Amino acid sequence: MKIDFTNLGLNEKKILYIQNMRAVMKRGALFSDETESYRVPAEPEKNTEVLIRFRTAKANVSEVYLCINDTEIPMELADSDRLFDYYEYNYPLKEEQIHYYFKIVSGFETCYYDKTGVVDSRTGWYDFTVTPGFKTPDWAKGAVIYQIYTDRFFNGDPTNDVETREYSYIGDFSVKVTDWNKYPATMGVREFYGGDLQGVWDKLDYLQNLGVEVIYFNPLFVSPSNHKYDIQDYDYIDPHFGKIVKDEGELLPEWDRTNRNASRYITRVTDKANLEASNEFFAQFVEEVHRRGMKVILDGVFNHCGSFNKWMDREQIYENQEGYEKGAYVSSESPYRKFFQFYGENWPYNTMYNGWWGHDTLPKLNYEESEELYNYVLNIGRKWVSAPYNVDGWRLDVAADLGQSAEFNHKFWKDFRKAVKEANPEAIILAEHYGDPGAWLQGDEWDTVMNYDAFMEPIGYFLTGMEKHSDAKRDDLRGNAYSFCEAMKHHMSRFQGSSLLVAMNELSNHDHSRFMTRTNGNVGRVANNGPQAAEMWVNKGIMKEAVIMQMTWPGAPTLYYGDEAGVCGWTDPDNRRTYPWGREDHELIDFHRETIRIHRENKALKKGSFKMLWTDYNVLSYGRFMDDNIIVVIVNNNDYEKEVHIPVWQLGIIDRDTVERLIESERDTFDIGNEEYTVVSGKLNVKVKGFSAVVYRKKL
Q1: Deepest of 5, 556, 677, 681, by most Cβ within 10 A of its Cβ?
Q2: Residue 643: beta bridge partners?
Q3: pLDDT tens-digit readout, 395-406
């Protein structure tokens, strides 16, 4: 839009024109994003209008264009406040996705604005996107998620514990661990500590008091391992996590590792009395979680199953059980033969089949050749988000690997989304994915992903220099604010706004080393360093910096059970230590509770805009803002105090405004005592302690 000179005198026109031609564009004022403050509605329906907004410094630019498909549309100056002008345009949507960016002109200066911010030239990679009809669940935007590896959380029902020699897996017997505090064995897949759903139920008060809004479970379905990514039966909760009401049969003798003789295990996991009781108990559990105002997400492992699976039955535990068909391993006449890809006709007991990454314990599911399998898994997707279970979504394991081709993979996830959303429109679908997720985040497949590229890895490298498995150290990335910001800009741009706000932002999880261990800066794994080394020379100050970033960054902050209590560990299986009941770091728990409270009390931290404000070596400052809720975060990862001058005017905080401190972390403590600062010349001028992070809020 050009300046309106209509009601000005000749001299005034000349003065304003000359000033405008000479004006230096205040690039720090330029802003737009895909939140509801700059796109109304943020998630528009098909064949409706969407209002797109853009912010500039007050009386600083002459024209702003909305550029859609490289067509420049003049925007109108619609509103102003003491610092900014706001330009708007109502765009009529159809059903197709649109991409847009902005062109800004100030005198002889022209620049562009896309998802990475202000740029002098266009690449076309980083345009904003509107996908009519694409919505992510509102409850999930900024939701505080708590990930539970069930076997290691709390043993609430000792009667369902896996027994030593109950069965054999990968060459040895199952083991019942009697010392809750024992470090996991290097080959710990057969070890069971006894954690179960009753244990989680017993600790719901703790989770609720912590501020948790969503519980995400690693797999709960029948499976022979403690991690349960080798599903045995998708239709039932494992009775070792649920209820065992019929407990007959014998343990294997020390000389026998043949699971067709594991009669105790066979009864426990194939008898319908145990299976139905476990499902009923799970339904009651979810009902209680919902009664408390929390949600539940299940882990869906649909790329592969396990060799114990009733469709394969390599262990022959279903072969002679009433009510079960012959498994594909057992018989060429099995109704499940096409569920898997076999090589040759070596029945009965055909060992020649396709295993995921060559693992014969993880048979890859063969969707392309079995419509029955395809529909069965879609029905599993529907089943658990529907009554009586009513779970609130799926986390999808190795989701990009499913199928034999990219084309088929996308077809499956489109159909999976339709099935799940028809059953429960408010269910979330989030995927485990490494690399660019953009192809799956077009509004018709996944809602979002576990946010490795745009959260876990950049933050880990910036604060610790460590790769997420602790397998390597990058001193060139530790403290490198430029690399951090560039990585974040790029990877965050691969999300649509609706996907970014629900992305699972983790510091640790079951596949990577604990973040607390990464703060020691040591490369290694438990096999070569030993478990005790994971606890040595850790830095709680860095851990707290990371937690404050987690609770103030766009997305859904996701705690891995025990991180809040100080649990350490190398990558798996050492990262799967038990929750340290009775040995918790209570100061760290209190710190998490306060940061979660701050996150939940400020709408800007759930759904607001994000803007990087200032960087230096080992120092970051950024803002989150939505209406009059304005948050400023400063992180100092140096071991010494740092004086900073943060341009908070870019968030809409003006001179003589007051900001109040909400929380300040230190290495051994934290402070939520109120301190106030006055903004001078558009800047917040403060000193930040070493290994510290601080959160401020504009005082109203």
Answers
A1: 556
A2: 687
A3: 999 999 999 999
Where helices occur in 194-234 by DSSP H, the ranges are 197-202, 204-210
Rounded to 10 degrees, what is the CA torsion of 489, 495, 498, 500?
-50
pLDDT attached to residue 213: 98
Asked if 465 and 478 touch (Cβ cutoff 8 Å), the reply is yes
User: Percentage of residues in the chain with pLDDT exceeding 70?
Assistant: 97
Q: How far apart are CA 463 and CA 456, in angstroms?
A: 11
Burial of 30: CB neighbours in 10 Å, binned 0-12, 13-18, 19+ = buried
pLDDT for 9 equals 52
Residue 126 corresponds to which amino acid? Y
Q: Do 700 and 676 touch, CB atoms closer than 8 A?
A: no
pLDDT at 2: 45
Owner of token pair 């040895």: 172
Q: Looking at the DSSP assignment, which residues form a beta bridge with residue 130?
A: 98
Spell out a b/e string for 525-548, using b for 16 or more CB atoms within 10 Å of the CB, else e. Answer: bbeebebebbeeebbbbbbbbbbb
Residues in CB range of 236: below 8 A, 6 or more apart: 221, 222, 275, 276, 278, 279
Q: Residue 76, exposed/middle/buried by CB under 10 A (0-12, 13-18, 19+)?
A: exposed
This prediction's pTM:
0.96
Residues 6+ apart with CB under 8 A from 248: 263, 264, 267
Q: What distance in Å separates the CA atoms of residue 110 and residue 103, rounded to the nearest whole number?
A: 7
| Cα gap 53→65, rounded to integer Å | 11
Give me Rg for the CA atoms of the chain: 28
And the tokens for 528? 């070569």
Strand ranges inside 550-653, DSSP E: 556-560, 609-616, 619-626, 629-636, 642-646
CA pair distance 247, 646, nearest whole angstrom: 65
- How do residues 88-130 score in pLDDT, each as one tens digit? 999 999 999 999 999 999 989 999 999 999 999 988 899 999 9
With a pLDDT cut of 90, the percent of the chain lying above it is 94
What band does 332 get if pLDDT is binned at 50, 70 and 90?
A: very high
Rounded Cα gap, residues 460 and 40, in angstroms: 35
Residue with tokens 């008091």: 209
Strand pairing category for 676-678 and 128-130: unpaired
Over residues 568-587, mean pLDDT: 98
Instruction: State the DSSP code for 403.
Output: S
Quote the CA–CA distance of 197 and 148 in Å, as a whole number: 10
Distance CA 234, CA 152 (A): 22
Q: Hey, what are 204's tokens? A: 């719901």
In 3D space, the residue among 266, 226, 219 whose CA is nearest the CA of residue 244 turns out to be: 266
- Given a contact cutoff of 8 angstroms between Cβ atoms, the answer to whether 299 and 217 are in contact is yes
The H or E element spanning position 99 is strand 98-106
> Which positions ≥6 away from 376 have C-beta within 8 Å?
none
Contacts of 530 (CB under 8 A, 6+ apart): none
Query: Could you report the per-residue pLDDT of 42-56, keeping only the tens digit for each?
Result: 999 999 999 999 999
DSSP lists the bridge partners of residue 430 as 395, 448
